[in-house]
Amino acid sequence: MAVLSSVVLSQIERHAPFGGVVPEIAARAHVETIEAIVAGALAQARVGAVDLDGVAATAGPGLVGGVMVGLSFGKAMALALGKPLIAVNHLEGHAVSARLAGDAAYPFLLLLVSGGHCQLLEVAGIGACRRLGSTIDDAAGEAFDKIGGALGLAYPAGPALERLADGGDADRFPLPRALLGRAGCDFSFSGLKTAAARIAAGLTGPADRRDLAAAAQAAIARQLAERTGRAMELYADRHDRDDLRLVVAGGVAANGAVRAALQDLARMRGFAFAAPPLAYCTDNGAMIALAGAERLAAGLTDTLDAVARPRWPLDEDAALRAPTHLAGRKGAKA
Ligand code: KG4
Ligand code: ZN
Fold this sequence. Notes:
single chain, 2 domains, Nucleotidyltransferase, domain 5, 5-stranded mixed β-sheet, binds zinc ion, binds 5'-O-[(R)-(carboxyoxy)(hydroxy)phosphoryl]adenosine
């Protein structure tokens, strides 16, 4: 399997004046750009639409306006071309993204860390994920974004926070260590986020900001590694030595400190380690195409009745048994 083209268009500039993503702007931007993006992807790949084996489109989870645009466009293409449609879960795209570089055979333990999600999953194959843990409040990317915002960095602040943290003293500001040593594989970032934002409000000099960025990044990386270590124990109990693999994916997997912490952990526990190339950590179409291709090969196609889903857990059974998304304000955000 090879990536023939990967066209990514960021809408961040359109949302920047509002300090976050505005759903109406996102939906409109999708309508305005999707045709050119698909045409560009086909042209760069030097293939015609008729050469496709199938059409994969994200069907959720996410802001439903944008998801509906992409899914409707995919359905229209599939119908017009007479090709199968594959409605892909965005999270499944992240789950397979390390396989774009070819080095994450099934099964593997997955840490999925993005702006909206923070989960540990056992991935047995395409469409076969079992959730071991997830955040009880915010996602790791959200913590990066909010703490970065408090430090005056533009949204999404993760990459800028990583640059700011460079050379900072991570030990200068003590930050809370949520759930440390606690049983299970869940995460919690809201206390850390609030504590860091409070410290940020009282800071003045550039060295202070650098040290706080370094402390926050280290605290996030530490929690991710600690909770992943617990999931490794559960995973190792159920798998042969040959199958001990840790994969990290999602936007936050682009962070060097996070990668390094997980790589060290994997080495200590005898796990192989894989992460997607940086370009495939943050959202991209190539990972959705790969999830679609793997589903197509497994005969998992969808009908034109497929619906756009604002929420769509990868492990639906676990989500029903132990919902992190309760109705209204009671549920975790991620
Ligand atoms: O996977 P993604 O592109 O979108 C979602 O599905 O959420 O992840 C975006 C998230 C944002 O919160 C962004 O700040 C974070 O990933 N991120 C980073 C880095 N690059 C992206 N966080 C920390 N360090 C980075 N280098
Ligand atoms: Zn994503």
